[in-house]
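Subject: for your reference before the review

Hello V.,

The reviewers asked for a structural picture of the protein, and I figured it would be easier to keep everything in one thread rather than splitting it across files. Below is the amino acid sequence we used in the manuscript, unchanged from the supplementary table.
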Amino acid sequence: MKTSRIITLSVIGIAGMYLLSSCQSIPKGATAVRPFEKERYLGKWFEIARIDFRFEKNLNNTTAEYTLNENGTIKVVNRGYNYVKSEWQTAEAKAKFRGDDNVAALKVSFFGPFYSGYNVIAIDEQYRYALVAGKNLDYLWILARDKSIPEEVKTNYLKIANDIGYDTGRLIWVEHNK
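And here is what came back from the structure prediction:
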């Protein structure tokens, strides 16, 4: 009986540690921007580069538009041109701050109750260029208000990402030709 209880508690403990680690919302070594002004972040952003993943596979001309919902959440509309299917694709999501809204640590859901980390880890003073980390080292975006980014900003953001542990050689540099 005592051995059974120890095994049960051990399994619960291991499962709890797994769940906590799988809920990680920002890569180790990354820090969300603070102070963050959500109103200045709203609007349209062009995706300059990303680490590719299945929901953006084969997309170019990708943009993200952020608007404030009445309840304080942020509506996210991602749009991109699938160059294999020759068609535009759109996905809508909802973003919420994980804590104070003056810290750029959010969670985003495209699929009901399932959320993933969205963390602005670098942004310029004019809110024209942003470096965004996902929940782990498999998710990274460089965004800009225009379709291109100055070389010095690109170099700086790549250094920040490399220092955190991102393999920036995996970045796809997005074309904006439509």
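For the response letter, the relevant points are probably these. The domain at 27-173 is CATH 2.40.128.20 (Lipocalin). The beta strands are 43-51, 59-68, 74-82, 87-97, 105-111, 114-123, 129-133, 140-144, 171-173.

Happy to draft the paragraph if you're swamped.

O.
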